[in-house]
Amino acid sequence: MTFRKRLQYLLVKRINISNKSALTLILDGKVFVNEKSVCENIVVNPEDKVVFEGQIVQEGKQFLYIAFYKPRGIETTLNIEIENNLKSILPFEEELFPVGRLDKESEGLLLLTDDGRLFDKTLRSEHQTEKEYIVTVDKEIDDDFIQRMSEGMMILGKTTLPCRVEKVDSFSFKIILIQGINRQIRRMCYKLGYEVEKLVRIRIGEIALEGLTPNGFRYLKL
């Protein structure tokens, strides 16, 4: 996880000076953040470069953001003691973690990063991040199914939020959620008498799967 710090705090810790001295340097405009002189005790992000008298106080971290196609049968966990864990199939040297999860039998888009702030930005309910799926079930879909799925229903003691559902063909539909109850789509279908045979996440917010195949990935700029 990554954390923001006050510039004064960063100077105290990195160049071993007092709080008073650090604040004086800042107010005198002697500290540069991203090549610009600052004159107030601003909040510094991990990606910001901080320099004082030619000395690099903080290099400025370059975060990685990756769209990854999680294949079916892989657990969304980095715990190597769990069979078929995500870490065992990732081809990256960097220590990345998944933002959110997909259950073992589901597949599709998973975001990977070393930026801990992305979890908050993407998944907290107040951000209303859309997550879109294509789902194939074991029986033909009718209009009643589409309507009841879109209206929301009680699962695990919670009423699901209304969502957008669109029929793709006789056995498949698209669904867009803005919440993440455990195995939500599978539980909703089961309650209506359907079994999910295939579930693919194709979009998170503005990031789409875009032709990736299982284990495929591409780098993102966020």
Task: Provide tags for this entry.
222 residues; alpha+beta; Structural Genomics Hypothetical 15.5 Kd Protein In mrcA-pckA Intergenic Region, Chain A; Pseudouridine synthase; 2 domains; 9-stranded mixed sheet; 4-stranded antiparallel sheet; 5 helices
Topology (elements, then pairings):
Layout (H helix, E strand, L loop, with lengths): L4 E2 H9 L3 H9 L3 E3 L2 E3 L4 E2 L5 E3 L2 E4 L6 E6 L26 E3 L7 E7 L3 H7 L7 E7 L5 H9 L2 E2 L2 E2 L4 E4 L4 E6 L6 H8 L4 E9 L2 E2 L8 E3 L3
Parallel strand pairs: 9-15
Antiparallel strand pairs: 1-4, 2-3, 2-5, 5-6, 7-9, 7-17, 8-9, 10-14, 10-15, 11-12, 13-14, 15-16
Helix pairs in contact: 1-2
Structural overview:
The protein has 222 residues and is of the alpha+beta class. It has 2 domains: 5-58, Roll (Structural Genomics Hypothetical 15.5 Kd Protein In mrcA-pckA Intergenic Region, Chain A), CATH 3.10.290; 65-219, Pseudouridine synthase, CATH 3.30.2350.10. Helices cover 19% and strands 31% of the residues. It has 5 helices and 17 strands. The strands form 4 sheets. Strands 7, 8, 9, 10, 13, 14, 15, 16 and 17 form a 9-stranded mixed beta sheet that branches. It has a 4-stranded antiparallel beta sheet with strand order 3-2-5-6. A two-stranded antiparallel ribbon has the order 1-4. A hairpin with a 2-residue loop joins β5 (50-52) and β6 (55-58). α1 crosses α2. The radius of gyration is 23 Å and the shape is elongated. The protein starts with a strand and ends with a strand. The model has no long low-confidence stretch (mean pLDDT 92).
